[in-house]
Every structure is written in C-alpha cells, then in structure tokens.
Design a protein that fits this description.
10 helices, alpha+beta, 50% helix, 254 residues
C-alpha cells in the first residue's frame, strides 16, 4: 500500500477510534480521557477532536467532549436506508401484537450488537433500551449472533469482553457460552432469564439470509413474573417465522 494511502487510513482509523470512544462514554470526556482511552497522544487527540467538532460530529463544553448533533443525522440516514430495518417494521409490529412482548432487532458491529429496531409490547421492560444501544454478544440475544462464531472468534470475543465489560457487570464464561451456543444450534432459539437485566425473560433467534449467512438477531422480551418460560418458548415458532420473513423482505430490496 502506498505510504500516502496508508497514512490516510491511519488517520481515518484514529478518527473512528475517537468517535467510538465518545460513543461508549455515558458522560462528556476531557481531552486527557480521550487520549488515554484511544492510545493517542494529546496533540493528536486534540487535532482529531477539533476536526470532528468543525463538522458537528463532536461538541464541547467546559473543555469536555461529547458526540455532536451530526451523529443524529447519520443515525437517521441509517434507519431510512438500512434494508434489514426497513424490512422489519411490519413484522415487529405483528410479533409484538401477537405475543404482547417487546420485539427487538439487532445487527452485529464487531464483537457487539446494536439495537436497530424495536416495537414495545404490552408490558414495560423497566429499563431503558434506546435505539443505537451497544450490547454484548455473550449475553441474551447476542448469542443468536455469536452462534456463528468459530473458536478463534470466540477467543477474540472473550478478549474483547475483558476490555469492554458490560455495564450490567455480567462477565463472559466461555465454557458456559459454548454450551448455550450448542443448545441454540440444536433448538434454533435461546431463552435467557435475567442475563442482562433482573426479572426479564427473552427468547432470541438468528436472522439469516437465504444462503444462511448471518444478518442479525431477533428477540422477544418481557417481565418474567408475567411470562413463564413455557409461555415464552411457545412463541418460538412465530419468532423464527418472523425472522425468516424479515430476511426475505430484506432480500427483495437489496
């Protein structure tokens, strides 16, 4: 790779590292925090932050930096143009009405999943889960994506979990994860109870293209006191059917 191209790629990677750092933070960060979390020098971090702020992707107050309003524009464009999100809307609505549970669609980003679409059920989940939230692959619906990871990728997921722990405090037990993934392959779905949030039961299934390549995960979730394991499992066939319909709808627009 020619040096000018390699240099441009390094600059782009550093800028994305800064955006990723700010996205993960739940509070504005000082310049020194951004530099430390990204491994950049203070001058380099300052230069990148200034360039991103000029385009509205970063905002600052009292020498602390946060994501800027331009990020919302990018998110809006994603929701309008992503074929999986577009194909999911009517099916999520139907599934939520049929089950009374909150229906969520996730797509993989690296070793995490991002909530890209959701329709609330009749029972509130009692915790905030906004569109765009990053969540781990080793908990809950993430396993419906992690089911396709090979041994090397599972090892890499374990390393990622150590450096990017889930706010719930739940760690990754690789042996237990392998067992859950084996069960998911056998049954076609995974049921979790309180894996990320106490008192929440959820069923998740993979969303796959016609060639079986992974597209994401679909889950239904609600309070465990109103929904027994048997009741939730009873919706497995309907959830698998909805996942297949979403994948088929995506194929028609891609």
């Amino acid at each position: 790779m020619p040096e000018p191209v390699a240099s441009s790629m390094r600059s782009l990677d550093r800028s994305l590292d800064v955006l990723d750092c700010l996205q993960r933070s739940e509070a504005p960060l000082r310049l020194s925090d951004v530099a430390a979390r990204t491994g950049l020098t203070l001058p380099t971090a300052s230069r990148i932050l200034a360039a991103l702020e000029a385009r509205g992707y970063v905002a600052s107050d009292a020498k602390r930096f946060r994501l800027g309003a331009s990020v919302l524009g990018a998110a809006h464009a994603f929701l309008l143009t992503d074929p999986l999100v577009g194909a999911s809307r009517q099916h999520l609505q139907h599934l939520a009405q049929a089950t009374g549970l909150t229906c969520s669609l996730y797509e993989r980003v690296g070793f995490e999943r991002v909530l890209v679409a959701r329709v609330d059920g009749q029972w509130p989940l009692r915790y905030e889960l906004p569109i765009g939230r990053r969540l781990p692959l080793y908990l809950g619906a993430g396993k419906a994506i992690a089911v396709d990871l090979d041994d090397d990728e599972l090892q890499a997921l374990e390393a990622h979990a150590r450096t990017h722990p889930d706010p719930s405090g739940a760690g990754l037990d690789l042996a237990a994860l392998r067992a859950d993934l084996a069960g998911l392959r056998e049954r076609g779905f995974h049921i979790s109870v309180g894996e990320r949030a106490p008192g929440i039961i959820a069923l998740s299934v993979p969303v796959r293209a016609a060639d079986a390549s992974p597209l994401g995960a679909l889950s239904i979730a609600g309070p465990a006191e109103q929904n027994s394991r048997e009741q939730v499992q009873g919706w497995a066939v309907e959830t698998v059917r909805a996942a297949a319909a979403i994948a088929q709808g995506r194929a028609r627009v891609v």
